[in-house]
Amino acid sequence: RSGEMAKLTKLLDNEAFQAYATYATIVLLKMMLMSLLTVYFRITRKAFANPEDVATFGRGETAKKYLRTDADVERVRRGHLNDLENIVPFLGIGLLYALSGPELSTALLHFRIFAGARVLHTFAYLIPLPQPSRGLSWAAGYAVTISMAYKVLKTALYL
After folding, report:
1. Where do the H-state alpha helices sit in the chain?
2. What is the spatial distance between Cα 147 and Cα 81, in angstroms, rounded to a whole number?
3. Angstrom distance (rounded) from CA 91 to CA 71
4. What's the rounded Cα separation, in Å, for the pair 111 and 20?
5. Helix, strand, or coil (residue 53)
6. CA dist 118 to 18, 67, 69, 100, 105, Å?
7. What is the tens place of the pLDDT at every residue in 135-153?
8. Residues near 145 by Cβ (< 8 Å), separated by ≥ 6?
9. Mean of all residue pLDDT scores within the chain
10. What class of enzyme is it (predicted)?
11. Residue ranges covered by each domain of the chain
């Protein structure tokens, strides 16, 4: 059992892993914020997806008018979906990358660009900023994930 703790302590001493843990937490918190924003927009726009969600507004036809889609709610939902499509791969590939022994400065650059790109992407989606700001921020984050995947495959090529 103490051997397992020693391995965990060694992992926590890995600065690239510490950097990964920091930036993974930042982007996960940002993604969680998107859930709260969806709830906020649903409540303020009175646009709900499920019949049970509108029960507080009455019954029958009175409640049905709140069972609808709203452009602002859908915009937040699309931003959240884009987070899921990009942050989940970052979490897996970023972890493997952090454990592959990268230079700390290179790892930090990857993680910071990804986190910054995802934050910018969210602002570009929600404000909305004119294109190509959203597209470029998406592409920057995606390119970082591909770069880390390439490094992992190059380091541990067992194909």
Report:
1. 2-13, 15-45, 61-64, 71-98, 104-126, 133-155
2. 22
3. 30
4. 7
5. helix
6. 20, 31, 25, 24, 20
7. 999 999 999 999 999 999 9
8. 86, 89, 90, 93, 94, 114
9. 92
10. transferase
11. 15-44+70-157
Tell me which CATH code domain 15-44+70-157 carries.
1.20.120.550
Rounded CA-CA distance 63/48 in Å is: 10
Give me 66's structure tokens: 């709140």
The model's pLDDT over 71-92, given as tens digits with 9 standing for 90+, comes to 999 999 999 999 999 999 999 9
157 vs 3 pLDDT, higher one: 157
> Residue 101 is encoded by which pair of tokens?
């022994």
Whole-angstrom Cα distance, residue 69 to residue 77?
Answer: 11
